[in-house]
Amino acid sequence: MSEQPATPPKSLPLVLAEPRGRKKPPRHLADLTDTERKDLLVEMGLPGFRAKQLSTHYFGRLVHDPAEMTDLPAAQRDELVGALLPDLMDPIRQQSADKGKTVKTLWKLFDGSLVESVLMRYKDRATICISSQAGCGMACPFCATGQGGLQRNMSTAEIVHQVVVGARAMANGDVAGGPGRLSNVVFMGMGEPLANYKATVGAVRRLTDPAPSGLGLSARHVTVSTVGLVPRIRQLADEGIPVTLALSLHAPDDELRNDLVPINTRFSVAETVDAAYEYFAKTGRRVSIEYALMRDINDQGWRADLLADVLAADGRGTSWVHVNPIPLNEVPGSQFTRSREEDMDEFVRRLEAKGIAATMRDTRGSEIDAACGQLAAAE
Fold first, then answer.
1. Which positions are catalytic residues (predicted)?
2. pLDDT of 6 over the 70 cut
3. Are 340 and 225 in the same domain?
4. How much is the mean pLDDT over the chain?
5. Which structural domain range is residue 80 located in?
6. Annotated binding-site residue numbers
Protein backbone atom coordinates (compact mmCIF):
# COMPACT_ATOMS: atom_id res chain seq x y z
CA MET A 1 0.00 0.00 0.00
CA SER A 2 0.96 3.65 -0.09
CA GLU A 3 2.44 5.64 2.75
CA GLN A 4 -0.91 7.19 3.55
CA PRO A 5 -3.54 4.49 3.09
CA ALA A 6 -7.18 5.43 3.21
CA THR A 7 -8.85 4.96 6.58
CA PRO A 8 -12.16 3.18 6.00
CA PRO A 9 -15.13 3.65 8.29
CA LYS A 10 -15.64 0.76 10.69
CA SER A 11 -19.09 0.00 9.28
CA LEU A 12 -20.75 1.17 6.12
CA PRO A 13 -24.55 0.92 5.98
CA LEU A 14 -26.01 -1.23 3.22
CA VAL A 15 -28.14 1.64 1.94
CA LEU A 16 -27.25 5.20 2.86
CA ALA A 17 -30.24 7.25 3.95
CA GLU A 18 -31.04 10.46 2.14
CA PRO A 19 -32.07 13.64 3.99
CA ARG A 20 -35.75 13.83 4.92
CA GLY A 21 -37.89 16.32 3.09
CA ARG A 22 -35.90 16.07 -0.12
CA LYS A 23 -38.06 16.83 -3.12
CA LYS A 24 -38.62 13.81 -5.34
CA PRO A 25 -37.83 13.74 -9.07
CA PRO A 26 -40.79 14.29 -11.43
CA ARG A 27 -42.97 11.21 -11.92
CA HIS A 28 -42.37 9.75 -15.38
CA LEU A 29 -43.85 6.84 -17.32
CA ALA A 30 -40.52 4.99 -16.94
CA ASP A 31 -41.20 4.89 -13.19
CA LEU A 32 -44.52 3.12 -13.77
CA THR A 33 -45.86 -0.18 -15.07
CA ASP A 34 -48.28 -0.24 -18.01
CA THR A 35 -51.24 -0.47 -15.64
CA GLU A 36 -49.97 2.35 -13.44
CA ARG A 37 -49.49 4.62 -16.47
CA LYS A 38 -53.05 4.00 -17.62
CA ASP A 39 -54.52 4.42 -14.12
CA LEU A 40 -52.72 7.73 -13.65
CA LEU A 41 -54.24 9.20 -16.79
CA VAL A 42 -57.71 7.96 -15.84
CA GLU A 43 -57.34 9.59 -12.40
CA MET A 44 -56.54 12.86 -14.18
CA GLY A 45 -59.66 12.56 -16.32
CA LEU A 46 -57.68 11.68 -19.45
CA PRO A 47 -58.20 8.67 -21.74
CA GLY A 48 -56.26 5.69 -20.36
CA PHE A 49 -55.38 4.32 -23.78
CA ARG A 50 -53.20 7.37 -24.40
CA ALA A 51 -50.65 5.87 -21.98
CA LYS A 52 -49.71 3.23 -24.55
CA GLN A 53 -49.33 5.90 -27.24
CA LEU A 54 -47.01 7.92 -25.00
CA SER A 55 -45.01 4.79 -24.18
CA THR A 56 -44.72 3.98 -27.88
CA HIS A 57 -43.33 7.44 -28.59
CA TYR A 58 -40.82 7.27 -25.73
CA PHE A 59 -39.60 3.67 -25.86
CA GLY A 60 -40.56 2.58 -29.38
CA ARG A 61 -39.93 5.66 -31.49
CA LEU A 62 -37.48 7.37 -29.13
CA VAL A 63 -39.42 10.62 -29.50
CA HIS A 64 -39.63 13.14 -26.68
CA ASP A 65 -40.76 16.32 -28.46
CA PRO A 66 -44.57 16.76 -28.10
CA ALA A 67 -44.70 18.38 -31.53
CA GLU A 68 -43.75 15.05 -33.08
CA MET A 69 -46.57 13.17 -31.31
CA THR A 70 -49.13 13.92 -33.98
CA ASP A 71 -51.40 11.01 -33.03
CA LEU A 72 -52.23 12.79 -29.77
CA PRO A 73 -55.02 15.39 -29.88
CA ALA A 74 -53.52 18.87 -29.94
CA ALA A 75 -55.85 20.06 -27.17
CA GLN A 76 -54.62 17.36 -24.75
CA ARG A 77 -51.04 16.92 -25.92
CA ASP A 78 -49.34 19.21 -23.42
CA GLU A 79 -51.36 17.80 -20.51
CA LEU A 80 -50.62 14.21 -21.52
CA VAL A 81 -46.92 14.87 -21.98
CA GLY A 82 -46.76 16.80 -18.73
CA ALA A 83 -48.38 13.89 -16.90
CA LEU A 84 -46.11 11.10 -18.13
CA LEU A 85 -43.15 12.63 -19.98
CA PRO A 86 -41.86 15.52 -17.86
CA ASP A 87 -38.32 16.78 -18.43
CA LEU A 88 -35.95 14.83 -16.17
CA MET A 89 -32.49 16.22 -16.87
CA ASP A 90 -30.62 18.72 -19.01
CA PRO A 91 -27.26 18.18 -20.71
CA ILE A 92 -24.95 20.95 -19.53
CA ARG A 93 -21.63 19.77 -20.90
CA GLN A 94 -20.48 17.25 -23.46
CA GLN A 95 -17.07 15.92 -24.47
CA SER A 96 -16.15 13.60 -27.31
CA ALA A 97 -13.15 11.43 -28.13
CA ASP A 98 -12.13 8.55 -30.40
CA LYS A 99 -13.10 10.57 -33.49
CA GLY A 100 -16.58 11.19 -32.15
CA LYS A 101 -17.33 7.58 -31.25
CA THR A 102 -17.08 8.20 -27.50
CA VAL A 103 -19.39 10.87 -26.11
CA LYS A 104 -19.50 11.81 -22.43
CA THR A 105 -22.42 13.88 -21.14
CA LEU A 106 -22.74 15.76 -17.86
CA TRP A 107 -26.39 16.00 -16.84
CA LYS A 108 -28.04 18.37 -14.39
CA LEU A 109 -31.02 16.79 -12.64
CA PHE A 110 -34.09 18.73 -11.54
CA ASP A 111 -32.57 19.62 -8.16
CA GLY A 112 -29.15 20.61 -9.49
CA SER A 113 -27.49 17.24 -8.84
CA LEU A 114 -24.90 16.26 -11.45
CA VAL A 115 -24.47 12.84 -13.04
CA GLU A 116 -22.56 11.49 -16.03
CA SER A 117 -23.11 8.98 -18.82
CA VAL A 118 -20.74 7.79 -21.56
CA LEU A 119 -21.84 6.49 -24.97
CA MET A 120 -19.23 4.33 -26.72
CA ARG A 121 -19.50 3.03 -30.25
CA TYR A 122 -17.47 0.00 -31.29
CA LYS A 123 -17.35 -1.98 -34.54
CA ASP A 124 -19.82 -4.61 -33.34
CA ARG A 125 -21.87 -2.81 -30.69
CA ALA A 126 -22.78 0.46 -29.00
CA THR A 127 -22.61 0.61 -25.22
CA ILE A 128 -23.76 3.26 -22.79
CA CYS A 129 -22.31 3.52 -19.29
CA ILE A 130 -24.88 5.06 -16.94
CA SER A 131 -25.11 6.43 -13.42
CA SER A 132 -27.46 5.15 -10.72
CA GLN A 133 -26.75 7.71 -8.00
CA ALA A 134 -25.66 11.32 -7.85
CA GLY A 135 -22.33 10.77 -6.14
CA CYS A 136 -21.52 7.59 -4.22
CA GLY A 137 -21.34 6.61 -0.58
CA MET A 138 -18.94 3.68 -0.92
CA ALA A 139 -15.87 5.88 -0.29
CA CYS A 140 -13.36 4.00 -2.47
CA PRO A 141 -10.32 6.32 -2.27
CA PHE A 142 -9.11 5.84 -5.86
CA CYS A 143 -12.51 6.75 -7.37
CA ALA A 144 -13.39 10.32 -8.37
CA THR A 145 -17.07 9.81 -7.52
CA GLY A 146 -16.28 8.24 -4.16
CA GLN A 147 -14.32 11.30 -3.11
CA GLY A 148 -17.43 13.49 -3.37
CA GLY A 149 -19.77 11.35 -1.27
CA LEU A 150 -23.42 10.60 -1.97
CA GLN A 151 -25.82 13.40 -2.87
CA ARG A 152 -28.90 11.26 -3.56
CA ASN A 153 -30.31 8.20 -5.26
CA MET A 154 -31.58 8.57 -8.80
CA SER A 155 -35.12 7.56 -9.69
CA THR A 156 -35.87 4.67 -12.03
CA ALA A 157 -36.82 7.11 -14.78
CA GLU A 158 -33.67 9.20 -14.35
CA ILE A 159 -31.58 6.05 -14.77
CA VAL A 160 -33.59 4.88 -17.79
CA HIS A 161 -33.60 8.29 -19.48
CA GLN A 162 -29.83 8.22 -19.91
CA VAL A 163 -30.26 5.06 -22.00
CA VAL A 164 -33.20 6.36 -24.03
CA VAL A 165 -31.27 9.51 -24.93
CA GLY A 166 -28.30 7.36 -25.93
CA ALA A 167 -30.53 5.11 -28.06
CA ARG A 168 -31.99 8.20 -29.72
CA ALA A 169 -28.53 9.58 -30.47
CA MET A 170 -27.55 6.30 -32.10
CA ALA A 171 -30.77 6.04 -34.10
CA ASN A 172 -30.49 9.64 -35.32
CA GLY A 173 -26.87 9.24 -36.40
CA ASP A 174 -25.64 11.78 -33.85
CA VAL A 175 -22.66 9.56 -33.01
CA ALA A 176 -19.85 9.21 -35.56
CA GLY A 177 -20.45 6.28 -37.88
CA GLY A 178 -24.01 7.04 -38.96
CA PRO A 179 -27.35 5.75 -37.67
CA GLY A 180 -27.17 2.60 -35.57
CA ARG A 181 -28.64 0.77 -32.60
CA LEU A 182 -27.75 0.94 -28.94
CA SER A 183 -27.14 -2.64 -27.87
CA ASN A 184 -25.50 -2.70 -24.42
CA VAL A 185 -25.97 -0.97 -21.07
CA VAL A 186 -23.51 -1.05 -18.18
CA PHE A 187 -24.33 0.29 -14.72
CA MET A 188 -20.74 1.43 -14.15
CA GLY A 189 -21.15 5.19 -13.96
CA MET A 190 -21.56 7.24 -10.81
CA GLY A 191 -22.93 5.46 -7.76
CA GLU A 192 -23.31 1.94 -6.37
CA PRO A 193 -26.30 0.44 -8.22
CA LEU A 194 -27.18 -2.09 -5.53
CA ALA A 195 -27.26 0.63 -2.85
CA ASN A 196 -30.13 2.09 -4.90
CA TYR A 197 -31.63 -1.35 -5.35
CA LYS A 198 -35.30 -0.67 -6.03
CA ALA A 199 -34.64 1.98 -8.68
CA THR A 200 -31.87 -0.07 -10.29
CA VAL A 201 -34.04 -3.18 -10.64
CA GLY A 202 -36.93 -1.03 -11.84
CA ALA A 203 -34.65 0.46 -14.48
CA VAL A 204 -33.43 -2.98 -15.58
CA ARG A 205 -37.04 -4.07 -16.01
CA ARG A 206 -37.89 -0.97 -18.08
CA LEU A 207 -34.82 -1.49 -20.23
CA THR A 208 -35.60 -5.15 -20.90
CA ASP A 209 -39.41 -5.05 -21.14
CA PRO A 210 -40.51 -5.31 -24.79
CA ALA A 211 -41.57 -2.06 -26.45
CA PRO A 212 -43.73 -0.14 -25.83
CA SER A 213 -43.67 -1.20 -22.17
CA GLY A 214 -39.89 -0.72 -22.17
CA LEU A 215 -36.88 -0.38 -24.43
CA GLY A 216 -36.72 -4.07 -25.40
CA LEU A 217 -33.02 -4.68 -24.77
CA SER A 218 -31.72 -8.17 -24.06
CA ALA A 219 -31.05 -8.76 -20.36
CA ARG A 220 -27.84 -10.49 -21.43
CA HIS A 221 -26.64 -7.15 -22.79
CA VAL A 222 -27.20 -5.37 -19.47
CA THR A 223 -24.43 -5.40 -16.85
CA VAL A 224 -24.96 -4.35 -13.23
CA SER A 225 -21.81 -3.52 -11.31
CA THR A 226 -21.34 -3.65 -7.54
CA VAL A 227 -18.52 -3.26 -5.04
CA GLY A 228 -19.96 -6.24 -3.20
CA LEU A 229 -23.21 -5.63 -1.30
CA VAL A 230 -23.63 -9.33 -0.53
CA PRO A 231 -27.34 -9.41 0.50
CA ARG A 232 -28.26 -7.39 -2.59
CA ILE A 233 -26.26 -9.70 -4.88
CA ARG A 234 -28.27 -12.61 -3.52
CA GLN A 235 -31.50 -10.66 -3.91
CA LEU A 236 -30.66 -9.81 -7.53
CA ALA A 237 -30.09 -13.48 -8.28
CA ASP A 238 -33.73 -14.15 -7.35
CA GLU A 239 -35.23 -11.39 -9.53
CA GLY A 240 -35.45 -13.61 -12.60
CA ILE A 241 -33.62 -11.12 -14.82
CA PRO A 242 -30.44 -12.72 -16.24
CA VAL A 243 -28.29 -9.60 -16.33
CA THR A 244 -24.52 -9.89 -16.13
CA LEU A 245 -23.13 -9.22 -12.66
CA ALA A 246 -19.84 -7.33 -12.49
CA LEU A 247 -18.05 -7.46 -9.15
CA SER A 248 -15.57 -4.64 -8.56
CA LEU A 249 -13.04 -6.59 -6.50
CA HIS A 250 -9.76 -4.66 -6.98
CA ALA A 251 -7.87 -6.81 -4.45
CA PRO A 252 -7.81 -10.53 -3.63
CA ASP A 253 -6.90 -10.14 0.06
CA ASP A 254 -8.85 -8.53 2.88
CA GLU A 255 -5.94 -6.45 4.19
CA LEU A 256 -5.62 -4.49 0.95
CA ARG A 257 -9.29 -4.53 -0.04
CA ASN A 258 -10.27 -3.01 3.33
CA ASP A 259 -8.32 0.06 2.23
CA LEU A 260 -9.37 0.14 -1.42
CA VAL A 261 -13.03 -0.87 -1.01
CA PRO A 262 -14.20 0.05 2.51
CA ILE A 263 -17.38 -2.06 2.32
CA ASN A 264 -14.98 -5.02 2.60
CA THR A 265 -14.79 -4.32 6.33
CA ARG A 266 -18.38 -5.56 6.39
CA PHE A 267 -18.32 -8.24 3.68
CA SER A 268 -14.99 -10.00 3.26
CA VAL A 269 -13.41 -11.09 -0.03
CA ALA A 270 -14.46 -14.69 0.63
CA GLU A 271 -18.09 -13.73 1.41
CA THR A 272 -18.27 -11.47 -1.63
CA VAL A 273 -16.84 -14.04 -4.04
CA ASP A 274 -19.16 -16.70 -2.59
CA ALA A 275 -22.17 -14.46 -3.29
CA ALA A 276 -20.95 -13.84 -6.84
CA TYR A 277 -20.61 -17.57 -7.43
CA GLU A 278 -24.11 -18.13 -6.06
CA TYR A 279 -25.33 -15.57 -8.60
CA PHE A 280 -23.72 -17.61 -11.38
CA ALA A 281 -25.17 -20.86 -10.02
CA LYS A 282 -28.72 -19.46 -9.94
CA THR A 283 -28.71 -17.50 -13.20
CA GLY A 284 -26.21 -19.36 -15.37
CA ARG A 285 -24.63 -16.00 -16.20
CA ARG A 286 -20.84 -15.85 -16.02
CA VAL A 287 -19.68 -13.17 -13.57
CA SER A 288 -17.24 -10.42 -14.50
CA ILE A 289 -14.57 -9.45 -11.99
CA GLU A 290 -13.49 -5.82 -12.38
CA TYR A 291 -9.96 -5.12 -11.19
CA ALA A 292 -8.52 -1.61 -11.54
CA LEU A 293 -4.73 -1.96 -11.75
CA MET A 294 -2.84 0.53 -9.56
CA ARG A 295 0.91 0.86 -9.69
CA ASP A 296 2.72 -0.96 -6.87
CA ILE A 297 -0.51 -1.31 -4.90
CA ASN A 298 -2.54 -4.20 -6.29
CA ASP A 299 -0.73 -5.13 -9.51
CA GLN A 300 1.93 -7.53 -8.21
CA GLY A 301 2.22 -10.91 -9.92
CA TRP A 302 1.65 -12.76 -6.66
CA ARG A 303 -1.67 -10.95 -6.27
CA ALA A 304 -2.73 -12.20 -9.71
CA ASP A 305 -1.92 -15.73 -8.51
CA LEU A 306 -3.87 -15.16 -5.30
CA LEU A 307 -6.82 -13.74 -7.22
CA ALA A 308 -6.94 -16.86 -9.39
CA ASP A 309 -6.79 -19.08 -6.31
CA VAL A 310 -9.56 -17.16 -4.54
CA LEU A 311 -11.87 -17.36 -7.54
CA ALA A 312 -11.29 -21.10 -8.03
CA ALA A 313 -11.43 -22.02 -4.32
CA ASP A 314 -13.91 -24.47 -2.80
CA GLY A 315 -14.13 -26.49 -6.00
CA ARG A 316 -15.68 -23.67 -8.01
CA GLY A 317 -13.32 -24.10 -10.93
CA THR A 318 -12.68 -21.28 -13.40
CA SER A 319 -15.47 -21.43 -16.00
CA TRP A 320 -17.90 -19.33 -13.93
CA VAL A 321 -15.88 -16.13 -14.03
CA HIS A 322 -14.09 -13.71 -16.34
CA VAL A 323 -11.62 -11.11 -15.07
CA ASN A 324 -11.41 -7.64 -16.57
CA PRO A 325 -8.16 -5.98 -15.47
CA ILE A 326 -8.63 -2.24 -16.03
CA PRO A 327 -5.88 0.36 -16.47
CA LEU A 328 -6.74 2.86 -13.74
CA ASN A 329 -8.37 6.09 -14.87
CA GLU A 330 -6.24 8.45 -12.83
CA VAL A 331 -7.80 11.24 -10.76
CA PRO A 332 -5.74 14.46 -10.72
CA GLY A 333 -3.92 14.87 -7.43
CA SER A 334 -4.55 11.27 -6.34
CA GLN A 335 -1.86 9.03 -4.87
CA PHE A 336 -3.20 6.19 -7.06
CA THR A 337 -1.61 5.87 -10.50
CA ARG A 338 -1.93 3.52 -13.46
CA SER A 339 0.17 0.37 -13.52
CA ARG A 340 3.12 -0.01 -15.86
CA GLU A 341 2.34 -1.74 -19.16
CA GLU A 342 4.69 -4.61 -18.38
CA ASP A 343 3.06 -5.18 -14.99
CA MET A 344 -0.42 -5.19 -16.53
CA ASP A 345 0.68 -7.70 -19.16
CA GLU A 346 2.24 -9.92 -16.49
CA PHE A 347 -0.93 -9.72 -14.37
CA VAL A 348 -3.03 -11.03 -17.25
CA ARG A 349 -0.44 -13.70 -18.09
CA ARG A 350 -0.44 -15.00 -14.52
CA LEU A 351 -4.24 -15.23 -14.46
CA GLU A 352 -4.36 -17.09 -17.76
CA ALA A 353 -1.62 -19.46 -16.59
CA LYS A 354 -3.99 -20.54 -13.81
CA GLY A 355 -6.89 -21.05 -16.21
CA ILE A 356 -8.72 -17.79 -15.53
CA ALA A 357 -10.16 -16.05 -18.61
CA ALA A 358 -8.93 -12.45 -18.56
CA THR A 359 -9.31 -9.54 -20.96
CA MET A 360 -7.68 -6.16 -20.45
CA ARG A 361 -10.41 -3.52 -20.53
CA ASP A 362 -10.37 -1.23 -23.56
CA THR A 363 -10.32 2.21 -21.92
CA ARG A 364 -12.13 4.82 -23.92
CA GLY A 365 -11.89 8.60 -23.76
CA SER A 366 -8.81 9.01 -21.60
CA GLU A 367 -8.48 12.58 -22.84
CA ILE A 368 -12.01 13.56 -21.73
CA ASP A 369 -11.90 12.95 -17.97
CA ALA A 370 -12.87 9.34 -18.58
CA ALA A 371 -13.24 8.30 -14.94
CA CYS A 372 -16.84 8.88 -13.85
CA GLY A 373 -17.06 11.75 -11.43
CA GLN A 374 -14.23 13.81 -12.89
CA LEU A 375 -16.45 15.93 -15.10
CA ALA A 376 -18.96 16.52 -12.32
CA ALA A 377 -16.18 17.41 -9.89
CA ALA A 378 -14.72 19.90 -12.36
CA GLU A 379 -18.13 21.50 -12.85
1. 116, 372
2. no
3. yes
4. 92
5. 29-84
6. 136, 140, 143, 191-192, 225, 248-250, 329
